[in-house]
Amino acid sequence: MRWLSLVWMIAGCGTEPLVWYSTCGDPACGGYAGPTDGLPVCEDEAEGATCADEGADCDLQTDCNTRLVCAAEDPKSGDVGCPISRKRHKRDIHYLDAAEVEAVRRDVAAMPLATWRYLDAPPASRPRLGFLIDDRPELPAVALDGEHVDLYGLASMAIAAVQAQERELAALRARTAALEAELAALKAR
Question: 75 phi and psi, to 5 degrees?
């Protein structure tokens, strides 16, 4: 790729060449969803090969619904990137303790939800549901660019909320069992 950029610059084109890059695909691979309306299937296009039409894309037909896009830079190279969850790709790993998980649960519980339509959506489009970054820009569910939702972070927050609620339910079940035993003992007297 580096030599291609050098040839491009020497030829006097002045800008980075357009190249086929793969996208992240779905945040969680759930199997190939089938062709997207109007998106052609990739045929001769190959990741790393040069292309001419910036913004053109095609369907790679993968289990993660990855596609190729013609661009001057890799769309995965920004702050958002693609979520990778293996330890070997990470550093400074810290597992949340019960108090930290509870704090995330409180954040989830306090997250205002809204419905909206995008400005460029047709008036008859269905309303969308979610949170607005403007309301809680500090949440881990906000991508580093401050414009997009980090779906991996959002899903992890939901998991933390479920874990905190499960601990609370287990404590309530134990308390209920103890109270029922106490009540049975009192009735037996």
Answer: -65, -15
Encoding tokens for residue 11?
């030829």
The secondary structure of residue 126, as a DSSP letter, is P
- List the structure tokens of 154: 């959002």
Distance between CA atoms of residues 9 and 13, nearest Å = 6
Residue 9 is classified by DSSP as H
Residue type, 137: P
Q: Residue 2 carries which side chain, given as an amino acid letter? A: R
Distance CA 58, CA 177 (A): 58
Judge residue 182's burial from the number of C-beta atoms within 10 Å of its C-beta, 0-12 exposed, 13-18 middle, 19 or more buried: exposed
pLDDT in tens, 123-162: 899 999 999 999 999 999 998 888 888 888 899 999 999 9
Dihedral in degrees, nearest 10, Cα atoms 113, 32, 145, 153: 60
Helix or strand run (H / E) with residue 71: strand 67-71
Q: Return d(Cα 110, Cα 106) in angstroms, integer.
A: 6
- Distance, in Å, from the CA atom of 119 to the CA atom of 113, rounded to the nearest integer, reads 18
